[in-house]
């Protein structure tokens, strides 16, 4: 008779998950498991089926076939609340919170009955529970309050509240060891915030398991134990992170080897034209001070820095979205301080929060590509729809926007295609200066390389491009010159020659 212990059942085991939508099969016979305390990576290009799989595991979609077992028991959750009761929670990349509600109301959204007496919501009890959760959370304590309205929080704090909600509801439902599905939760975080999140996840491994979805393959290798690779709805590989590499994962995801020249470094220019953008002694209250920089025709200047350094505020100020002191000149002409409209035709801005400010999700590709350059498609006071359609068709082909038609809603596109639609609009706006805040945020590795190529094309056409990025390798790979901000100031800029030999360690040394 054996005296050995029986292995514990997996926290979750999915068997033969298939999901068919009209005209397309999103998932085909996908099986995977997550053990106690594991952090599992899930990677694949946009459209590979990652979000569909997470929606099935969290009860938001019912699969066409297949089974889900939680701790050895059959559990095919019919709703998100049922998944919560089974111990499964999901933190979304975008749109997971209700902007006009408070942090407390968002933490317990959908579970208000736990704070209701005689049909009335006990706000004091709700806020007290939320306050306890915030105080117990190293990433939120001292940074947000339970009464704060989510719309007033910066993007990174909204994401942290989204993650905290999983643990708040788990505690409310007496779930001792939840499974938390992290869906692109690092996309809106910069490097130091990602490191803090790593610590946060590792510190909770004794009381939670995680599925971690990210387009940043280095994050998968840094944080996870194992990784599953999806391609075209099929699970094509499972690897221990100790036995794989970024290059192998890229090949499995995309179906080809990653090019050594991933950032098109061979197309970095050595000669540039006149200065198009000149910033002198620019400041915006406590956000940043005394910033001076020039960007020449055909040049890409990449700016990095840790959270709170002021780099995104700098981008907004140059775009006219943040009032500032000092001078901003384009082609030597000083721009008036004020609203973004004062920069029309001179500066085009791609914001960090693409969904809120960069594109209109409910409008078509055609509308999104042309609304800021209607002067190009007018005939007198009227819109020349034939000319507009020709321009959009050419842009869709050039930027390789994958969609059934130009009338497709942008909200139905992948993150990479949404970003390419926005980039096409900016390039057609008439401005020759582009300000791009993390232009590859939430974009898969294949689409990222396409965007890098498009930026090189625009530089070759004479655009001046200021790129803000939280990705150190992107800073080095894309920047003809690289600058670092710290505490609201530009503390160092590497020249064209120095940038070619720049290392991540050199950048980090200046950032902190």
Low-confidence stretches: none
- Give the strand order of the largest sheet, numbering strands 1, 2, ... along the chain: 6-9-10-3-11-12
- CATH class of the largest domain, named Alpha Beta
The CATH topology assignment of the largest domain is Rossmann fold
Percent of residues in β-strands: 15-25%
Topology:
Elements lengths: L11 E10 L2 E11 L4 E5 L6 H8 L7 E6 L2 E2 L5 H7 L1 E4 L11 H5 L8 E2 L2 E2 L1 H14 L18 H18 L6 E5 L7 H13 L5 E5 L3 H7 L2 E6 L2 E7 L5 H9 L20 E9 L7 E6 L3 E5 L6 H9 L5 E6 L2 E2 L12 E4 L3 H5 L6 H6 L7 E2 L2 E2 L1 H14 L16 H13 L5 E5 L7 H16 L3 E5 L3 H7 L2 E6 L2 E6 L1 H4 L4 H8 L1
Parallel strand pairs: 3-10, 3-11, 6-9, 9-10, 15-22, 15-23, 18-21, 21-22
Antiparallel strand pairs: 1-2, 1-4, 4-5, 7-8, 11-12, 13-14, 13-16, 16-17, 19-20, 23-24
Helix pairs in contact: 13-14
Would you give an account of this structure?
The chain is 32% helix and 24% strand. The strands form six sheets. A six-stranded mixed sheet has the order 6-9-10-3-11-12, sandwiched between helices. It is globular. Helix 13 packs parallel to helix 14. It is α/β, with parallel strands linked by helices and 512 residues long. Strand 13 (275-283) and strand 14 (291-296) form a beta hairpin. The chain is built from 17 helices and 24 strands. The termini are far apart. It has two domains: 12-254, Rossmann fold (3-Layer(aba) Sandwich); 273-360 and 432-511, P-loop containing nucleotide triphosphate hydrolases (Rossmann fold). The relative contact order is 0.11.
């Amino acid at each position: 008779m054996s005296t050995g212990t029986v292995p514990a059942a997996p926290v979750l085991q999915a068997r033969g998950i298939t999901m068919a939508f009209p005209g397309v099969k999103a998932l085909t016979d996908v099986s995977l498991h997550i053990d106690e305390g594991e952090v599992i990576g899930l990677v694949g290009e946009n459209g590979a089926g990652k979000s569909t799989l997470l929606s099935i595991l969290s009860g938001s979609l019912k699969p066409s076939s297949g089974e889900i077992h939680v701790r050895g028991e059959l559990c095919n959750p019919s709703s998100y609340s049922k998944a919560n009761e089974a111990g499964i929670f999901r933190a979304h990349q975008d749109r997971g919170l209700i902007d006009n509600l408070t942090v407390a109301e968002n933490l317990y959204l959908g579970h208000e009955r736990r704070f209701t007496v005689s049909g009335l919501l006990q706000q004091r009890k709700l806020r007290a529970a939320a306050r306890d959760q915030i105080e117990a959370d190293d990433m939120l304590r001292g940074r947000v309050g339970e009464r704060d309205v989510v719309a007033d929080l910066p993007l990174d704090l909204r994401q942290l509240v989204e993650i905290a909600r999983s643990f708040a509801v788990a505690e409310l439902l007496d779930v001792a060891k939840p499974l938390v599905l992290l869906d692109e939760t690092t996309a809106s975080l910069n490097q130091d915030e990602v490191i803090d999140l790593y610590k946060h996840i590792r510190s909770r491994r004794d009381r939670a398991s995680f599925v971690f979805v990210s387009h940043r393959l280095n994050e998968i290798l840094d944080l996870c134990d194992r990784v599953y690779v999806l391609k075209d709805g099929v699970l094509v590989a499972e690897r221990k992170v100790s036995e794989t590499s970024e290059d192998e994962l890229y090949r499995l995801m995309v179906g080809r080897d990653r090019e050594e020249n991933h950032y098109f470094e061979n197309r970095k220019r050595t000669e540039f034209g006149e200065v198009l953008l000149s910033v002198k002694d620019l400041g915006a209250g406590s956000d940043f001070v005394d910033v001076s920089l020039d960007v020449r025709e055909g040049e890409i200047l990449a700016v990095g820095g840790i959270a709170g350094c002021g780099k995104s505020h700098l981008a907004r100020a140059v775009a006219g979205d943040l009032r500032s002191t000092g001078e901003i000149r384009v082609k030597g002409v000083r721009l008036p301080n004020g609203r973004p409209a004062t920069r029309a035709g001179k500066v085009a801005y791609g914001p960090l929060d693409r969904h809120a400010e960069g594109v209109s999700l409910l409008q078509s590709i055609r509308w999104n590509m042309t609304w800021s350059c209607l002067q190009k498609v007018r005939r007198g006071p009227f819109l020349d729809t034939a000319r507009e359609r020709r321009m959009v068709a050419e842009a869709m082909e050039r930027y390789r926007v994958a969609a059934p038609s130009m009338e497709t809603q942008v909200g139905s596109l992948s993150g990479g295609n949404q970003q390419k639609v926005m980039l096409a609009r900016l390039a057609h706006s008439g401005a020759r200066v582009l300000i791009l805040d993390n232009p590859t945020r939430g974009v898969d590795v294949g689409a990222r390389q396409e965007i890098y190529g498009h930026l090189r094309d625009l530089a070759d056409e004479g655009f001046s491009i200021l790129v803000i990025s939280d990705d150190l390798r992107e800073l080095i790979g894309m920047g003809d010159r690289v600058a670092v901000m710290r505490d609201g100031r530009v503390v160092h800029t590497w020249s064209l020659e120095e940038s070619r030999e720049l290392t991540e360690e050199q950048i980090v040394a200046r950032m902190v």
